[in-house]
Amino acid sequence: MMRKMKKIDLRSDTVTLPSPEMMEAIQRAKLGDDVYEEDPTVNELQELAAEKMGKEAALLVTSGTQGNLVSLLSQTHRGDEIILESRAHIYLFEVGGMAAIGGLMARPVYGERGFLKPEQVVANIRGDNIHFPRTTLLAIENTHNYAGGTVLDEEGMNALAEVAHENGLRVHLDGARIFNAAVALKTDVKRLVRKVDSIQFCLSKGLAAPIGSLVVGDRDFIKRARKYRKMLGGGMRQAGIIAAPGIIALEKMVNRLAEDHETAKLLAERLSKVEGVEVQEPETNILFINISGTGKKPKWLVQELKKKNIIIRSGLDGRIRLVTHYGITKEDILFVAEEMARLLES
Ligand code: TLP
Question: What is the pLDDT of residues 60-85, one digit of tens each?
């Protein structure tokens, strides 16, 4: 079959390249020194982000990891304990920054589909005892990456935030992919985050901007976050070149996430027909499969697909994560499914 060998990279939605419109916006961006809060493009993006989330203020940060860390630092004190789901990105994949830099204790608790139940939160809050650290924060991840791009709805979000607040905890949302959740639920993102105190969301994932995340919350929180961002080396100067494509990401790339959810479903549907392949039904743009039933090894599959310019990565736990995103078409996905089926059935 003569097919032009387009590179199809399904390792993550972080691999997306900026759209031509984003590249043009970078060229035209009005710039200033953002450490002095004088970059008009950064200011515009931050206002837009705050408005979209229904909160008072926002702050552009370099990455999701930095956004989560400044949020945690801004809402806790050294020695505090944070409750989070045991597969949370903050806990597993952020280099232990909360402990190393924040002096924070993690209280990881397993939750079905990546989400704790309110009663699990209550059960894990430390009581008033001389021996205990203080529990001061609940961190939620929506969509939950490692649990399979799973979605928590408005009711679920509110129930968690309410129980946390009733017990004196603040609430942080690792919303790296919160727009995927909102699109999957066909709801306004504002409704999902209404009761949380801080949010980190990424521009550089499904929204296809090249760099950056936003931290969102009330003005006092953002003031503290700005100081911690500076401490971590995240005070940027003419950062409007980052903010300009970010504005396009927020204004034009949100609704199209539905296409990524469709292509993930299509891939799941095709792969579930292959004998020995276990497929976790995708809720958004992340699909986990397990091929151990085929007798083939993930590493072998990675190598074989690479020959067709299809790039995947085998996970840490034997599963394979496939992520759909901007630039991946339905036709690409049909091609990937066909190639994978051919290899796994051979
Ligand atoms: N996730 C990356 C990798 O680190 C695994 C990916 O490819 O999915 N929160 C969540 C839920 C994330 O998935 C990620 C990135 C982050 C935070 C961190 O964002 P960055 O990579 O911008 O620091």
Answer: 999 999 999 999 999 999 999 999 99
**How does pLDDT run across 258-270, given as a tens digit for each residue?**
999 999 999 999 9
Mean pLDDT of 22-45: 98
Q: Which residue lies with its CA nearest to atom 18 of ligand 1?
A: 64
Residues 6+ apart with CB under 8 A from 69: 94, 97, 98, 101, 102, 228, 232
Alpha carbon of 181 to ligand 1 centroid (Å): 15
Report which protein residue has its CA nearest ligand 1's atom 15: 64
Cβ proximity of 244 and 29 under 8 Å: yes
256-261 long-range Cβ contacts below 8 angstroms, 24+ apart: 256/326, 257/179, 257/180, 257/183, 257/206, 257/207, 257/284, 257/285, 258/183, 260/13, 260/180, 260/206, 260/284, 260/285, 260/324, 260/325, 260/326, 260/328, 261/180, 261/183, 261/184, 261/285, 261/324
- pLDDT, tens digit, for every residue of 9-18? 999 999 999 9
- 132: which 2 tokens? 């205990």
The fold of 2-15+256-345 is: Aspartate Aminotransferase, domain 1 (3.90.1150)
Give the residue-averaged pLDDT of 31-35.
98
Task: Tell me the whole-structure pTM to 2 decimals.
Answer: 0.97
Q: What angle do CA 318, 151, 273 make, to 5 degrees?
A: 50
Per-residue pLDDT band at 1 (split at 50, 70, 90): low
Backbone angles phi, psi at 57, to 5 degrees: -150, 165
Q: What is the share, in percent, of the chain residues with pLDDT greater than 90?
A: 97
Domain ranges of the chain: 2-15+256-345, 20-252
d(CA 183, CA 202): 15
Phi, psi for residue 194 in degrees, rounded to 5: -50, -40
In three-state secondary structure terms, 187 is coil
For ligand 1, the distance from its centroid to the CA atom of residue 48, given in whole angstroms, is 22
Range 20-252 classified under CATH 3.40.50.460: no
Size of the chain, expressed as the number of residues it contains: 346
Beta-strand runs (E) in 123-188: 135-141, 170-174
CA of 346 to the centre of ligand 1 (A): 34
